[in-house]
From TrEMBL, chain A:
This is Protein CotJB domain-containing protein. InterPro entries: CotJB_dom, Spore_coat_assembly_CotJB. It holds the Pfam family CotJB. Residues 8-84 form the Protein CotJB domain.
From TrEMBL, chain B:
It comes from Desulfoscipio gibsoniae DSM 7213. Its cofactor is Mn(2+); Ca(2+). GO terms for molecular function: metal ion binding. This is Mn-containing catalase. Belongs to the manganese catalase family. Ca(2+) binds at residue 60. Pfam families: Mn_catalase. Mn(2+) binds at residues 35, 65, 68, 136, 169. Binds 2 manganese ions per subunit. Binds 1 Ca(2+) ion per subunit. The lineage of its organism: Bacteria, Bacillati, Bacillota, Clostridia, Eubacteriales. Keywords: Calcium, Manganese, Metal-binding. InterPro entries: Ferritin-like, Ferritin-like_SF, Mn_catalase, Mn_catalase_dom.
Length: 87, 190
């Protein structure tokens, strides 16, 4: 499996995810900020798309039913664990 | 309820194994200003906060601190992984190795195990939010100390990211405190 590609796809998810986290915290204390709300919704859509694309190749990113499983094998335990990846 | 994301918040790289550096950085895993203390401090305080905003901020920052604990754990793991036993002994990690091998453990840089006394909760929302503001500043200061002790550029990148997050959290806790103080004052006037 192409390791560089996985790291690259993960990086894109990490970038979108930190933007979402930052906007989430900002909106907690600025719940009426329209510009931040719009940005949050945009990044939410981009993040979901990036995660679903990653999962098609490398298996589930989330446990407990938030990521789909494929037909023939439970892949949650297949991909490397976050602390094992050589970034 | 929490859901696990099979990714780190940011990529974590180290240039080479360095058990000496691992011994310093482990304090942000299990030391007084570390990420275990931070996550538990915030998540534990949620229940007695008077406003929805304060409960939300504590939930969200407490959750991010759990992700930071995983980042620090990964740094320590990668700095010890593959280090020969002689290097572990030379780094003064022999006593850690005697009890824990290459496993992680919540301890400060001197090897003293984590204690719940690192975390405070008074039940007074104004006092507790001040505690968090101080905690964020102390964690920032420890990350700066660690940056002085490091010359690995890849480790520095990770430590700088974590330091910046403390600054953002401090900002959000400050705003939360302002709203909570307003809320408490209104209650008293009424």
């Amino acid at each position: 499996m192409d390791h560089r590609n996985q790291v690259q796809m993960l990086l894109q998810i990490q970038q979108l995810s930190i933007v979402a986290t930052e906007l989430n915290l900002f909106l907690d204390t600025h719940p009426n900020d329209q510009q931040a709300l719009n940005m949050f919704n945009q990044v939410h859509n981009d993040l979901l798309k990036a995660v679903r694309n990653y999962e098609k190749i490398y298996g589930p990113m989330l446990n407990y039913g938030y990521s789909p499983a494929v037909q023939n094998r439970w892949k949650w335990i297949d991909s490397p664990w976050p602390w094992e990846i050589k970034y | 309820m929490w859901v696990y994301e099979k990714k780190l918040q940011i990529p974590v790289r180290v240039s080479a194994p360095n058990p000496k550096l691992a011994k310093y950085i482990i304090t942000q895993y299990g030391g007084p200003e570390g990420e275990l203390s931070a996550s538990l401090r915030y998540l534990n305080m949620r229940y007695t906060m008077p406003t929805a905003m304060a409960k939300g901020v504590l939930t969200d920052i407490g959750t991010e601190e759990l992700a930071h604990m995983e980042i620090v754990a990964t740094l320590v793991y990668k700095l010890i992984e593959g280090a020969p036993i002689e290097a572990i002994k030379a780094a003064d990690l022999g006593s850690h190795y005697a009890d824990h091998g290459r496993a992680l453990y919540w301890e400060n840089a001197a090897g003293v195990p984590w204690v719940a006394a690192y975390v405070s909760a008074t039940g007074d929302p104004v006092a507790d939010l001040h505690e968090n503001l101080a905690a964020e500043q102390k964690a920032r200061a420890v990350y700066e100390n660690l940056l002085h002790l490091t010359d690995d550029p890849q480790v520095k990148d990770v430590l700088r990211f974590l330091r910046e997050r403390e600054v953002v959290h401090f900002q959000r806790f400050g705003e939360t405190l302002m709203y909570v103080e307003d809320y408490m004052n209104k209650k008293k006037v009424f």
